[in-house]
Amino acid sequence: MELSQYLDAEGIILDDEIIGKLEGFAVLLHEWNQVHNLTGARSVAAIYDNIVDSLYPLAFIKIPKTLLDVGTGAGFPGLVLAIALPETEVVLAEPLKKRVSFLKYATMDLGLKNVKVEAKRVESVEHEAFDMISSRAVTNTKLLLDLTSRISDEHTEYLFYKGSRVFDEIAQVEGQMSYDIIQKNQRNYLYIKNET
Ligand SMILES: C[S@@+](CC[C@H](N)C(=O)[O-])C[C@H]1O[C@@H](n2cnc3c(N)ncnc32)[C@H](O)[C@@H]1O
C-alpha cells in the first residue's frame, strides 16, 4: 500500500510534495535501520504506521510556530511533524549518537530548512519558551513537564503520545492545567492546552 492510502484512511490531508518527503524519510529510515538498528519499525509498512501515528494530531492541535520534540529517536514524532509543518521551527532533542547521525542525515538529505537537531538531553537544551513540546515513549508526563519547565511558559502547549497509563499520569498533574485526551485505538494523545 502507498503512504497516501495510509494517510487517506485517517483523513490526513497533505500536499504531494510533503507526502513525497515522508516517503523519502521512510526509505531512508528503512535502509539505515537494517544496519544501525534505530527503531523497532522494521518494515516500510510499520514505518508508515508510525508516520500516521505521528501526524494524526494535526487534526486537533493548534499549529505551533516553534516545536520541541523530546527524545525523537529515529524521527517519531518530531521529524515527521517537521516534514508536515515546513513553517514551524522544530528542535529535536536526542542524546543517542547513532540516532542523532540519522536525524542529521535525514534533515540534510530531505532539504528540511526548519529542523535543528540538538545532540543532547532535553535538560541541556537552551531556547526561549516553545509554543509546543511533544514527546513519544520517553518518560512520564510529570517528568516531561519538569524537564522542560525552563523552556516553556504559560503559553506553551504539550502533545504527549501515550498509552493506557495516561490516566494515572494525568492524575498526578491534574488541576494544574487544561487538557484533552484523544483516543485512537491503543494510542491516547494527551494535549495539554493553553486556553488564553
Ligand atoms: C523509546 S525511545 C522513543 C523514540 C521516539 N520518540 C519514538 O517514539 O519512536 C526514547 C528516546 O528518548 C531518548 N531520551 C531519553 N532520555 C532523554 C532526555 N532526557 N532528553 C532527550 N531524549 C531522551 C532516548 O535516547 C531514546 O532515543
Notes on the protein architecture:
Keywords: Cytoplasm, Methyltransferase, rRNA processing, S-adenosyl-L-methionine, Transferase. Specifically methylates the N7 position of a guanine in 16S rRNA. One of its GO terms (molecular function) is rRNA (guanine-N7-)-methyltransferase activity. The chain is an alpha/beta fold and 196 residues long. The protein has one domain (3-193): Vaccinia Virus protein VP39 (Rossmann fold, 3-Layer(aba) Sandwich), CATH 3.40.50. The chain is 38% helix and 20% strand. It has helices at 3-9, 16-36, 44-55, 78-84, 97-109, 141-147, 166-173, and strands spanning 66-70, 89-93, 115-118, 132-136, 157-162, 178-184, 187-193. Strands 3-2-1-4-5-7-6 form a seven-stranded mixed sheet, covered by helices on one side. Strand 4 (132-136), helix 6 and strand 5 (157-162) form a beta-alpha-beta unit. Helix 2 packs across helix 3. The longest helix is centred in the N-terminal third of the chain and has 21 residues, at 16-36. The chain is globular and about 45 Å long. The model has no long low-confidence stretch (mean pLDDT 96). The chain binds S-adenosylmethionine. Residues 39, 70-74, 76, 93-96, 99, 121-123, 136-138 line the site of S-adenosylmethionine. Residues 39, 70-74, 76, 93-96, 99, 121-123, 136-138 line the site of S-adenosylmethionine (SAM).
